[in-house]
Amino acid sequence: MTIVTVFRSRLRPGVSDDYALVAREMDRLVREMDGFLDHKFYTSPDGERVTVVRFADRASHRAWAEHPQHLAAQRRGRDEFYAWYDISVAEETYGRTFERDEI
Length: 103
Prior knowledge:
The protein has helices at 16-31, 58-65, 68-81; strands at residues 3-11, 36-43, 49-55, 82-91. With 103 residues, the protein is α+β, with helices and mostly antiparallel strands.
């Protein structure tokens, strides 16, 4: 069953440029991971950032969580980039997709 991570955060002032470099590298790296399905990123009007990441199963999610470069990025996030963050990980219990075919 799909594993979904919701990562909410706020950046510290003045770190956007350095953070963007790390974020681009993590984006490239996660796309290469076995079991990676997709991810989306949103910023709310009040500055809170939300990333939703989906993996095919627990094993692929765990491999990403334990990837050495991802662990190093997490350390930098705590040390340099984030004023605050909150992570929720859940196993999807239901999923449904609808897509309209345009005529």
